[in-house]
Design brief:
Layout lengths: L1 E5 L4 H12 L7 E6 L10 E5 L5 H8 L4 E4 L7 H21 L5 E7 L26 H20 L3 E6 L1 E3 L3 H4 L19 H10 L2 E4 L8 E2 L1 E3 H11 L9 E3 L6 E2 H12 L3 E4 L11 H7 L7 H10 L15
Parallel strand pairs: 1-2, 1-4, 2-3, 4-5, 5-6, 6-11, 7-10, 8-13
Antiparallel strand pairs: 9-12
Helix pairs in contact: 1-7, 2-3, 3-4
């Protein structure tokens, strides 16, 4: 068994590879990491192919003798790369996969950008049946196209594929920095741009928490998942017979409520909060299908997500790096 991991050096790829190597069920599996800008150390179980999936020859070399593909490589808001990498690269991988004599399953890790994140109002829980709704920008469009390309390749050629759709993925102290009014904010909104500069400076110094309000003036609810929960779902789906041709939402049981975040941090750490109005919409991804089909359960709830991020201590060999802004 040979598992190709694209985007292998990213946040999810690194954790997935470590978890797979530590899992007794997969002790005989070998891993091939497709690396572009960075690389991983090779050993008897891990080999590396260097290059971009936008290059057909690289994609074909990476696919040689592979049984399973875990496709994580993506582009953010980089219009100059998104078609070649996100669309063209996936096309070359799928072309090689469908013609391979060893290929067994192609797993795509998608994102809630494909169904609009918090840009659009949803009348009920967001299930896997909700239609694609890309928000403005090339990244969200690419996430829609990725899902559609895999789905259509399944229809065209009958390959075994599945998609795991994740919202914003957290690890270590990420969540703490999503709430920063400073220049070190992780992702968006960029809180310091939403208040006067003097207020932003004061909020950053005091650890003030933004209490984001939705378009109805209520505390916004937004979906998150911890990287270890996502990786657990990926390993569960990698060879699960019920994952064939399926799309799964992989997220926390309950979305993050910014009002509950503010209350918890005030109660446990004495941190103040400030309301930030917005035009965004609260939504709730439904993860019931993954629970039912895969027997998967997320370990992180709101309290654990907050406390793990605020309690995390970085060592000298663990600098905070953001490969992508969010």
């Amino acid at each position: 068994m040979l598992i190709l991991v694209t985007g292998a050096t990213g946040k999810v790829g690194r954790v997935f590879i470590d978890a797979l190597r530590a899992d007794p069920k997969w002790k005989a599996a070998k891993i091939r990491a497709l690396c572009h800008n960075r690389a991983l150390p090779e050993d008897e179980r891990l080999s590396v192919v260097k290059g971009s999936i936008a290059d057909r020859a690289v994609a074909e070399a990476a696919m040689r003798d592979v049984t399973h593909v875990v496709h994580l490589a993506t582009c953010k808001e980089t219009p100059e790369d998104v078609v070649d990498v996100a669309v063209g690269g996936l096309f070359w991988l799928l072309e090689a996969f469908r013609q391979s004599k060893t290929a067994q399953r192609f797993m795509l890790i998608g994102g809630d950008a494909a169904i609009g994140h918090f840009f659009y109002r949803h009348p009920g829980p967001i299930t896997e049946a909700v239609p694609h709704m890309a928000y403005p920008g090339c990244y969200a469009l690419s996430k829609v196209l990725e899902e559609v390309m895999l789905q259509q390749t399944i229809i065209q050629y009958g390959i075994d594929g599945c998609t795991l759709r994740a919202p914003w993925i957290m690890e270590k102290d990420d969540f703490k920095y999503t709430l920063s009014f400073g220049d070190d904010v992780f992702g968006g909104p960029v809180w310091k741009d939403l208040v006067p500069a003097a207020d932003a400076k004061r909020y950053a110094e005091s650890g003030t928490v933004p209490l984001l309000l939705d378009a109805d003036g209520k505390p916004l609810k937004r979906n998150f998942v911890h990287v270890t929960d996502l990786v657990a779902a990926m390993i569960a789906a990698l060879d699960h017979p019920k994952a064939k041709h399926q799309l799964f939402n992989i997220c926390m049981d309950v979305p993050v409520d910014y009002g509950a975040v503010a209350q918890h941090l005030q109660k446990t750490r004495g941190l103040p909060s400030v309301e930030i109005p917005s035009d965004y919409h609260s939504n709730w991804m439904d993860n019931s299908k993954a629970k039912y089909f895969l027997g998967w359960r997320p370990a992180y709830d709101l309290t654990k997500l907050i406390d793990a991020a605020y309690d995390y201590k970085r060592g000298a060999d663990d600098p905070r790096k953001i490969w992508y802004p969010g």
